[in-house]
Design brief:
The complex is a heterodimer of chains A (about 325) and B (about 290).
Chain A: H1 3-12, H2 31-57, E1 60-61, E2 70-71, H3 75-80, H4 88-120, H5 127-135, H6 142-152, H7 159-166, H8 181-207, H9 211-219, H10 224-252, H11 256-262, H12 273-283, H13 287-316
Antiparallel strand pairs in A: 1-2
Helix pairs in contact in A: 1-10, 2-13, 4-8, 4-10, 4-12, 5-8, 6-8, 6-11, 8-10, 8-11, 9-10, 10-13, 12-13
Chain B: H1 8-11, H2 17-47, H3 52-55, H4 70-76, H5 85-116, H6 122-133, H7 141-150, H8 158-161, H9 168-179, H10 184-191, H11 196-204, H12 209-225, H13 228-233, H14 242-252, H15 257-277, H16 279-290
The chains are: A mainly alpha (about 325), B mainly alpha (about 290).
């Protein structure tokens, strides 16, 4: 994922120096292949082959109750598009859950880290300290985030309800098992967890903007807001594209939070697509249909990424 | 990174009242935000030293009134246990370290070939590796599960070590660095009769300590924190790594928050230590991945 911005950027900048003229001397013909072999092997075994194998698998119905595995062609895909089939309803409900989660979390994760980065980009005492503090939750795994927030959001003994009560607000909100609270219980901790990541990316982008542009804008009498609008935002455009794309992809992958905090509740309302796919394929061993679902989800993400990219490109021209 | 900060604020050494107000407001906001980010972690630590009773008592006590290591004794108790947290800790250390070493070996070798050698098929190879970066991870779930099963690795640490042992990110990351090294280095060594492998080991790698360290730290964190995959490929209590273990712990001790938080602390401490010690590498790695690759 992280290479998106890099490749986007590389299209614009001159190619990095070509691996050189010295490339041909002092090496046997096989040397480069020997160096690449470990990666080729692993990439082939666990990356390239699986994708093809997965497509193959999605054309099968697995063995059920002793009935052997059976070639079913596109049936798994057709089922996903046929209302009333076994997988149709739960799959699209899980897609909707993932869609909602993405819709609620991405704007927050694009805007708040930008604000934080703008503040941290000023020169003042302790800015590195603050950056470190905000980034800290990101190095923890989703498992820790999940069990911690499940506790903090506990209806009866959780700190969140307790402090809401202290502020004179309702103190009995069922965060983890009723809607719309369930969404807050998934989105809030996610923002808390990953805000630092986007902030660090924005900060690096902000520091790439030529300070002379700000000085020029100042000479022209531009105030803070105008400088932000006409210098900062345009300068950040490739970074914004990167942050938005990566955040959408990460949100669409949401699994651990829903698995640990809401456990899909209420009903299956917060069961995300990845949760359903994983349970269906790796718990109930309906791998063909789960593989088909994962390709449908991947197709959605591909379309979103392309649209995203095109939108940003056009605005640039 | 620090050197290039915008100097808008500090250029005029005397700040006017408006700027001062903004600075004060910024500080207040930043400190509030720091509390929001740090308090939950401190709460986890504090709770892990409480009795179960105190962990569920309101108003909350931020400093344990009855300081106890009971929760830790519970999760560390030896003998038959459905939640052998120490064992998970050990498994996680083994898996994350092994995978990190493998990633460094595979990525540095391939990146060296791709960056410094000309050979037929190089561009195709690079294209294939890059393409895998754009394929979402969940697409690999079913097929990788079948492959891991085929090798008989289900419910063993190999299932969480091998599939991530080589990946596009590492290759890509190191290649960027190798490409920018001056060719004179290699030419001199070649003239002296060194072969490619010697050059790789004695010249390229020693000059790449910083990017290798960055990649090592990032790989370790990613593997240590991986959740979905181990949840499904590891089953036996003694074979789990910490993240799926915490999920089991939460179910087994659903009302005993002191114990669950103690598990969270055990899973957090190594990564927080790595982060504090290697902060520079982590943050550089993250910001470079978004910018310079």
């Amino acid at each position: 994922m992280t290479a998106l911005a890099e490749s986007a950027r590389r299209k614009r900048s001159p190619r990095p120096s070509d691996p050189g003229k010295s490339g041909m001397i002092g090496q046997g013909r096989t040397t480069p292949y020997l160096f690449s072999l470990p990666t080729i092997l692993v990439v082939a075994a666990v990356l390239a082959f699986p994708v093809i194998y997965g497509v193959w698998e999605s054309l099968y119905r697995p063995e059920i109750l002793g009935a052997p595995e059976e070639w079913v062609g596109l049936q798994n895909y057709i089922d996903l598009l046929t209302p009333g089939s076994v997988t149709f309803e739960p799959f699209w409900q899980s897609m909707e859950a993932t869609g909602k989660f993405t819709l609620y979390s991405v704007p927050l994760l694009v805007v708040i880290p930008l604000l934080v980065a703008l503040i941290l980009n000023q020169e003042f005492l302790g800015r590195n300290f603050f950056r470190t503090m905000y980034f800290a939750p990101y190095v923890l795994g989703v498992a820790v985030i999940g069990i911690l927030w499940r506790y903090l959001l506990d209806t009866n003994v959780g700190l969140v309800n307790y402090y809401l009560g202290q502020l004179g607000l309702p103190d009995n909100i069922p965060w983890t098992n009723e809607l719309p609270w369930g969404w807050v219980a998934l989105v809030g901790p996610t923002v808390w967890w990953t805000l630092g990541f986007n902030t660090v990316i924005y900060l690096a982008g902000l520091q790439d903007i030529d300070p002379a542009l700000y000085d020029a804008a100042k000479v022209d009498g531009a105030n803070r807001w105008r400088r932000f609008l006409h210098v900062t935002l345009p300068g950040l455009r490739p970074i914004l594209l990167f942050v938005i794309t990566v955040t959408i992809l990460a949100s669409a992958n949401v699994f651990g939070q829903a698995y640990l905090i809401t456990e899909g509740a209420p009903g299956d309302e917060t069961q995300t697509a990845i949760m359903y796919i994983a349970e269906e394929g790796l718990r109930n061993f309906k791998m063909g249909s789960a593989a088909a679902m994962s390709y449908v989800l991947a197709l959605f993400l591909a379309v979103i990424s392309v649209v995203n990219f095109v939108l940003f490109r056009y605005r640039e021209d | 990174m620090e050197g290039t900060t915008t100097r808008i604020e500090s250029k005029e050494s005397r700040r006017n009242p408006g700027q001062l107000a903004i600075l004060v407001l910024s500080y207040v906001g930043l400190i509030l935000l720091t509390i929001v980010f740090v308090a939950p972690l401190l709460w986890m630590l504090s709770t892990s030293f409480k009795t179960n009773l105190e962990a569920t008592q309101l108003p909350p006590s931020w400093i344990p009134e009855n300081f106890t290591t009971e929760a830790y004794s519970t999760i560390f108790k030896t003998g038959e246990s459905q939640t052998p947290v120490l064992r998970w800790f050990f498994n996680s250390i083994v898996a994350a370290s092994a995978q990190t070493v493998l990633v460094l070996v595979t990525a540095s070798m391939a990146a060296y070939a791709l960056a410094r050698m000309n050979f037929p098929g190089r561009n195709v190879l690079f294209a294939v590796i890059i393409t895998t970066l754009f394929i979402p991870q969940f697409v690999f779930l079913m097929p990788n599960y079948l492959i891991v099963d085929m090798f008989g690795w289900l419910d063993t640490l190999l299932a969480v070590i091998v599939p991530g042992a080589a990946g596009a990110f590492g290759v890509f990351f190191l290649r960027q660095f190798f490409v920018s090294m001056p060719h004179e280095l290699e030419e001199a060594a070649l003239v002296d009769g060194a072969n490619r492998f010697q050059i790789f080991l004695r010249i390229i790698l020693p000059l790449s300590k910083a990017p290798l360290a960055t990649l090592a730290v990032l790989s370790f964190l990613v593997n240590w924190n991986d959740f979905l995959w181990p949840v499904y490929v590891l089953f036996s209590p003694e074979n789990l790594t910490l993240p799926p273990g915490l999920s089991i712990l939460q179910n087994a001790y659903s009302t005993d928050y002191a114990v669950v938080m103690a598990g969270g602390v055990v899973a957090s401490i190594p990564v927080l230590i790595v982060f504090i010690l290697a902060q520079k590498y982590v943050i550089q790695g993250v910001s470079r991945s978004g910018l310079k690759g």
